Amino acid sequence: MRTQQLLALFGVTILIAGITGACAQVEQRDKRFYYRALWNFALRENLQALDIEFNGVDFGHSNLYENLLLTGAKDVHAIEDRARKETLRFIESRPVLNPNEEAIAPTYMKLAWKAQNTFDEAHALHRATYDIYASDLADKESAIHKVLAFYQDSNYAITAKRLDHQRLDTFPYSKSFRRKFPLFNATIWAYHYLQVAVYDPLEAAPTLDTKEHVVEPILRTYHGYLDKPPVEWTFMPMTEELSPKFAAEYPEIAHIFDNLHMMHDNISDILTTDLLSTWEEKRQEIYRVTQKYYWASADATNPFIVREGQSHHSGSPPVIEPGAPGEHSGNSGGHQ
């Protein structure tokens, strides 16, 4: 009897140890609720056509990452044809609610949840600014500064400093995704075009009727890009190019959005490259890049911040850490 009790106790101990070991691999999900305000969901209520398009955008990134991870980025047809067309069909379905990205990309969320949460919080800032512009608020500037302050209070906030995106596009694995999957890459860049191109027209339009009117040509251009992806573009769209007034009035937010979109490109490359052959290697590099170069908490040491008086495309290469992929300065060309 004594032996049986000891064996039972030993079995329970092993079970507990196994559970504890497994839980050690699970990241804490410290997700924040969005900023609560009277203008929440104003875009959905007042400019539904534009809101619907942004719901499609949310699906596209997650669907891409899940498919890159599950296929090992080996099957061009699976990404360029099947996964891309799944995204296009979702967009064409005109979703009235934003999708559950954890349901779309459960594998990727388990791999790099902190990176995804970094995306989610920046996307929430995007949504908040759209809601403010689509609302009847008289003092939109104060509201935008409030949501910016709320966003920057997060541990997952992307730096509001201007980053040298050209140098961030010169890791050994950089451009892997756009070279192997040019159609889906151009589709992603088309999303980014839509996300930043609407700011100046929305701000300039004085009424909801005129706001609906001014976004119509942007939506037509966007859908033209979906039908014929702009593979001739050499770099992602930038906020300053497409909404210069917004970028001048809210430079910190413009930098956050451009940095967010560059981070998307880096992670697409990490998930595509053969230089990082295992999921764990990819996870480590995603977190290294995210936490060292994109999080605002790294501002004091971030070598990619464009300092005052420094050219956007210049500066000394950062020190290469032992075991980390190399980094070098360079210029990859501009968005045409």
Spans of at least 5 consecutive residues whose pLDDT stays below 50 are: 5-24, 312-336
- Overall shape: it is globular
Percent helix: 55-70%
So how many helices? 17
Element string (H = helix, E = strand): HHHHHHHHHHHHHHHHH
Tally of individual domains: 1
Spatial separation of the terminal alpha carbons: 79 Å
What is the arithmetic mean of pLDDT?
87
Strand percentage, roughly? Answer: under 5%
What would you note in describing this structure?
This protein is mainly α and 336 residues long. The chain has one domain. It has helices spanning 2-24, 42-46, 48-71, 76-92, 101-104, 106-111, 113-133, 140-152, 165-168, 176-180, 182-197, 199-204, 208-227, 239-242, 244-249, 251-272, 279-294. α3 packs parallel to α16 (251-272), α11 packs antiparallel against α13 (208-227) and α16 (251-272) packs antiparallel against α17 (279-294). It starts with a helix and ends in a 42-residue tail after the last helix. The model is unreliable at 5-24 and 312-336 (pLDDT under 50).
